[in-house]
Amino acid sequence: xxxxxxxxxxxxxxxxxxxxxxxxxxxxxxxxxxxxxxxxxxxxxxxxxxxxxxxxxxxxxxxxxxxxxxxxxxxxxxxxxxxxxxxxxxxxxxxxxxxxxxxxxxxxxxxxxxxxxxxxxxxxxxxxxxxxxxxxxxxxxxxxxxxxxxxxxxxxxxxxxxxxxxxxxxxxxxxxxxxxxxxxxxxxxxxxxxxxxxxxxxxxxxxxxxxxxxxxxxxxxxxxxxxxxxxxxxxxxxxxxxxxxxxxxxxxxxxxxxxxxxxxxxxxxxxxxxxxxxxxxxxxxxxxxxxxxxxxxxxxxxxxxxxxxxxxxxxxxxxxxxxxxxxxxxxxxxxxxxxxxxxxxxxxxxxxxxxxxxxx
Length: 360
Ligand code: SF4
Known about the structure:
This protein is α+β, with helices and mostly antiparallel strands. The protein folds into two domains: about 5-210, Hypothetical protein, domain 2 (Endonuclease III, domain 1, Orthogonal Bundle), CATH 1.10.340.30; about 230-360, Nucleoside Triphosphate Pyrophosphohydrolase. The protein is built from 15 helices and eight strands. Strands 1, 2, 3, 4, 5, 6, 7 and 8 form an eight-stranded mixed β-sheet that branches. It binds iron/sulfur cluster. Iron/sulfur cluster (SF4) binds next to helix 9 and helix 12.
């Protein structure tokens, strides 16, 4: 038996001994499989679970999702992060419902044309829904293959991707590609973990190069580390009686189409006195005698793939309603705020605030 044959056979045998329940396991409806795969991009299974069930219940057919208002879909997605996934999901649902008569594409190339679907997701949907001979390749698979086969080519290079994809394709169990793909994903999530892989009782250990050469910690190899950009968001939490002022993020940036308080971004941390004299802040605020500074929140932090966000909320009481020259700011009742989809960092702040108000 070659090492490749050993790998595939051992993996399938191992999967028979595992019972990792997930609501989308065994699902054959391509629409539901697609939903689960989009949710699981950048999200842990435990977190994505309830969102999957919620979406399935609210939008049982692709047409239901296609016909939903965008704000509603964004609100449903709230808390999952990486909101471009929700926008792409919605756009692709419209495309399937309107251009494909509601019929989900069934070839790898056609699935790949859906917005927000990359090679990994197309391979997973193709294998799970249609039994296509497509092998998935994601972080889990890179790790498992690089360790077992001792591959030191960096996984974030074009050559590395090609080499790993060719190996993954050659290992695929063609008779049941769905079962094989699920097995390798589970193996990466349960056995061959990023930190502290469970090598002691691993059925692959006798043939695993990384285990035999004590290189599990070094593999897989990446050529570069992502430099994260630091950003400082100062939000103006303006209030007149029980009215709040929010607006939609429309620019080409993170959190597109989510709501937020009027924002002034700075290149570094600033204190509230200098912040309140900032010319961009003065453009938003009314005349000095018409507002009072109440205080600022603690700093909230959120890390994204390429950015680190720090946000502070400056709380300001107005003595009359805000006059909004550009008409992009909405006046919203305090109770109505929960109807809008906000980025996680604002959500955390609002939750802390409501807890504070309940306690005192
Ligand atoms: S022996 Fe360790 S490193 Fe090798 S496949 Fe098993 S868990 Fe992963």
